[in-house]
Design brief:
55% of the residues lie in helices and 12% in strands. By secondary structure, the chain is of the alpha/beta class. The protein folds into five domains: 289 residues, no CATH class; 108 residues, PAS domain (Beta-Lactamase), CATH 3.30.450.20; 77 residues; 156 residues, 2-Layer Sandwich (Heat Shock Protein 90); 114 residues, Response regulator (Rossmann fold), CATH 3.40.50.2300. Strands 1, 2, 3, 4, 5 and 6 form a six-stranded antiparallel β-sheet that branches. A five-stranded mixed β-sheet has the order 8-10-11-13-12. A five-stranded parallel β-sheet has the order 15-14-16-17-18, sandwiched between helices. Strand 1 and strand 2 form a beta hairpin. Helix 2 packs across helix 6 and helix 5 packs antiparallel against helix 6.
């Protein structure tokens, strides 16, 4: 049985266990010390055996190392108490008891360093380590030292004391140590080697022989006991050896102390008798314990051999059964390629009997075009084996059935090597019919090509729909915003205008969500990383959503910004988009309470964590698995209270994963929700320049400049004219690309706003022609003015872009940046 310490937990329960084992060590050490001193003294003998050290060593080896200090302390206390009771002086007690405890500790350390934390006396190595180190070396070293100290304190013959002391300790260690390590685990050993009639009789015979030998005092029959102990060890292994060692030692000591047994025949007094008894018991134990371990190992080896043979026979039968019933062909050939074995599946796959294709006949079924390729692969595999490499090959080739039909086969040839020499002796192959799979692959390739074509059509459709939907929305939202600024607008009219602007913005958000999700699926969104102040980004998001929260009387507040680094690297537009989705959802679904936006930064991992916490109705466990999927809505009934296309969270997940992060939710129904995401965001090491955090003034293009607006939608042209003429910019119009090229050729303009999708000539082609011609506006900045500017990078011909539907700030800032004069080049 392996005596293995439990794992260290440092818990309060472990402290209690350590205290308990310390008490057991103290009581056991003291009781055994008392018996070993007082019992022999009552019969006029000196102590023939010292059991306390063996007891303490066994307790140490049965316990985790973390409990050793408590056990040693308990043994020390018990030894001091026993010494005081025996009448030892304080100096003798304080000198010899620590040496006894040291001997037990040294024995445990030596054994554990040799066999490890787990000791199993059933293994010869562990048994020999215990017998030689704990039962031999430790008692000899510490016992001799204790005898020297004892002689110095009490006098006597030094050699006599060393021999007596060492033998006492050796005998005690070997008698009680194995018994304490084996007998408490007797169930395991008995399960491993159950009690048999012969085993029980051998133990009983050993005890009877011990009673016979030590029950009379006429004949020195000590030589009869070791064979009986060996028989018990042979029959009952470790359990029998440990049990017999303890029983024989007990019988011998009790009867000798009462004046019986052959030991009393020895002349010379109690010292010589004790010495002979100790030598006899030590020699008997030294013989029986290792013999028991060797017998256990022998039995295990024999059992393993029988098991291995049985498994080999079973494996052979199993492989034969598999080969004969396998659906694939199992084949073997020599190194020249001649088939030497083919399994019965040959008939089902190829229509030939296995014996029909042995030798070179298999080559006749292969497609002539595939034979050279197969030969090259097998030759490459053989060469790799010669270099000591293992080359796994899977080859697909064509073959002809007996009925003439062509089929596809898959082969996995592996070199078969001799177990004696390791040299390749042949090729073992698994041959599978993959005709159905190849057919399916061709069908899948065709289906994939069709799907890719459909995806391309879908992308083009979405692009066209984006343009067609955003173009009228530009006019709707733009004119609604301009109309809302009219000072003489009545209350009812202003409310209607606000409803138009809100409806247009809602429709624009849905269109943006659909297009963003499409671009995410196609991998067409690129990150634009730059230094960002997180506090400003949070403030922007909360400012945008503040009106919606105020309308519902919800508190909207930031958390955790004080612990953030000054600036981090990320894509602010994408992070803002995710935050707007999460905070917007929280505001939409929360009726009472508050919504918080918490920011935290992990300096060790360099990751930013944003959390949106609300006091809304919460999200059930079943719904949490759905809310990040596209078109998923928790309140998806026809009469649902909240709107939306169900794409916001799916887009948020896609954007977070694109940024290398993760997103999730923690919530219980009725207890609010916490939506969070975490992304990598490196800290900007250089300090921000002074004034970086100040908000720039609203950009305005210089008055008096001339701008050409090229757009096929009259409403959009009128909207742009209204915005630009209000700030002093002169506007000219062109109805399509051809008209725009002609206008740029005929007149001089400071900038050109160019729609990308127009009849006759699109925006990119028109811009390229303007640049190529040497007209007065050939070098003027050309600004892309279209919904398509969100889809990806612009053509280099453009100097900027403003999206549709336009906003006044976007239009004016983009135009102001394009009209800004270039900085002079300094030498």
């Amino acid at each position: 049985m392996v005596v293995k310490p439990t794992s260290e937990t440092g818990s309060r329960g472990d402290l209690g266990a350590a205290a308990l084992v310390a008490v057991v060590a103290a009581l056991g050490f003291a009781l055994l010390a008392y018996l070993c001193v007082e019992t022999p003294r009552a019969y006029g003998y000196v102590t023939p055996i010292w059991l306390s050290n063996g007891f303490l060593a066994a307790v140490l080896l049965s316990s985790p190392s973390r409990r050793w200090p408590a056990i040693l302390l308990g043994g020390l206390v018990g030894g001091l108490a026993a010494g005081a009771h025996a009448g030892d002086s304080l100096l003798v007690n304080l000198t010899l008891v620590p040496l006894n405890v040291l001997q037990a500790g040294l024995a445990a350390v030596l054994v554990r360093r040799t066999v490890g934390d787990a000791i199993d006396l059933g293994r010869p190595r562990d048994m020999l380590a215990f017998v030689l180190l704990a039962g031999g070396l430790a008692p000899l070293v510490i016992g001799s030292l204790a005898a020297v100290v004892h002689t110095a304190l009490r006098g006597g013959d030094l050699v006599h004391n060393i021999i007596t002391w060492s033998l006492n300790d050796i005998l005690g260690m070997l008698c009680i140590g194995p018994a304490l390590l084996v007998l408490p685990r007797a169930n395991h050993y008995l399960r491993e080697r159950p009690l048999t009639r012969d085993g029980v009789l051998s133990v009983v015979a050993c005890c009877v022989m011990a009673l016979i030998v030590f029950g009379q005092a006429r004949y020195p029959l000590l030589f009869l006991l070791p064979p009986m102990m060996l028989i018990a060890a042979w029959r009952q292994e470790v359990f029998g050896a440990a049990l017999c060692s303890a029983l024989v030692a007990t019988i011998a000591l009790v009867l000798t102390l009462t004046g019986r047994g052959p030991i009393t025949l020895i002349q010379g007094g109690a010292y010589d008798q004790s010495l002979v008894l100790q030598l006899f018991l030590a020699a008997s134990t030294f013989i029986s314990l290792p013999a028991a371990a060797l017998q256990r190992q022998r039995r295990e080896i024999m059992a393993n051999l029988v098991k291995a043979r049985s498994e080999a026979e079973l494996s052979e039968a199993r492989y034969r059964l598999l080969a004969e019933n396998a659906l694939d062909v199992i084949a073997h050939s020599d190194l020249d390629g001649r088939m030497t074995y083919m399994s019965p599946a040959t008939y089902a796959i190829l229509g030939y009997a296995p014996e029909d294709l042995l030798g070179w006949a298999y080559m006749k079924v292969l497609h002539p075009e595939d034979i050279p390729r197969i030969a090259d692969l097998v030759r490459a595999q053989r060469e790799a084996s010669g270099r000591g490499e293992v080359m796994a090959i899977t080859v697909e080739y064509r073959a002809f059935r007996k009925d003439g039909a062509m089929i596809w086969l898959e082969s996995r040839p592996m070199l078969a090597c001799s177990p004696e020499t390791g040299q390749a002796v042949g090729v073992t192959d698994i041959i599978r019919d993959i005709t159905a799979r190849k057919t399916l692959e061709m069908e899948l390739r065709a289906a994939r090509a069709e799907a890719e074509a459909a995806a391309a059509v879908k992308g083009e459709f979405l692009a066209n729909m984006s343009h067609e939907l955003r173009t009228p929305l530009t006019a709707v939202i733009g004119f609604a915003n301009l109309l809302a600024e009219e000072p003489d607008l009545g209350g009812r009219s202003r409310r209607y205008v606000d409803r138009i602007a809100t409806g247009g913005q809602t429709l624009l958000t849905t269109i943006n969500d659909i297009l963003d999700f499409s671009r995410l699926e196609q991998g067409r969104i690129a990150l634009q990383l730059r230094p960002v102040v997180i506090a400003d980004l949070v403030a922007d998001v909360l400012e945008i959503l503040a009106p919606a929260a105020t309308e519902k009387q919800l508190a909207l507040r930031p958390l955790g910004g004080e612990a953030m680094p000054e600036r981090v690297i990320l894509d602010p537009e994408r992070v803002r988009q995710v935050l707007l989705n999460l905070v917007g959802n929280a505001v939409k679904f929360t009726e009472v309470g508050e919504v918080s936006l918490e920011a935290a930064y992990d300096n060790d991992k360099g990751r930013l964590r944003m959390s949106v916490i609300d006091t809304g109705p919460g999200v059930g466990k079943a719904d949490q698995a759905l809310i990040f999927t596209r078109f998923a809505q928790i309140d998806a009934a026809l009469n649902r209270e909240h709107g939306g296309a169900g794409l916001g969270l799916a887009i948020s997940r896609g954007l977070v994963e694109l940024m290398g992060g993760e997103i999730g939710v923690a919530s219980n129904l009725g207890q609010g929700a916490r939506f969070w995401f975490e992304i990598p965001a490196a800290i900007v090491s250089t300090p921000a320049a002074e004034g970086d955090d100040e908000a720039p003034d609203f950009p305005m293009p210089p008055p008096g400049r001339r701008v050409l607006v090229v757009d096929d939608n009259a409403g959009n042209r009128e909207l742009v004219r209204s915005v630009l003429e209000a700030v002093g910019v002169e506007v000219a119009e062109a109805v399509d690309g051809e008209d725009g090229v002609a206008a740029a050729r005929a007149g001089s303009y400071d900038a050109i706003l160019m729609d990308l999708r127009m009849p006759r000539l699109d925006g990119v082609a028109a811009a390229l022609r303007i640049r190529a011609e040497s007209g007065p506006s050939a070098k003027a900045p050309i600004i892309a003015f279209s919904a398509d500017v969100r889809a990806g990078p612009l053509d280099p011909v453009f100097d900027g872009a403003t999206p549709k539907p336009l906003t006044v700030m976007s239009l004016l800032s983009t135009l102001a940046e394009a009209l800004e004069p270039p900085e002079p080049v300094t030498a």
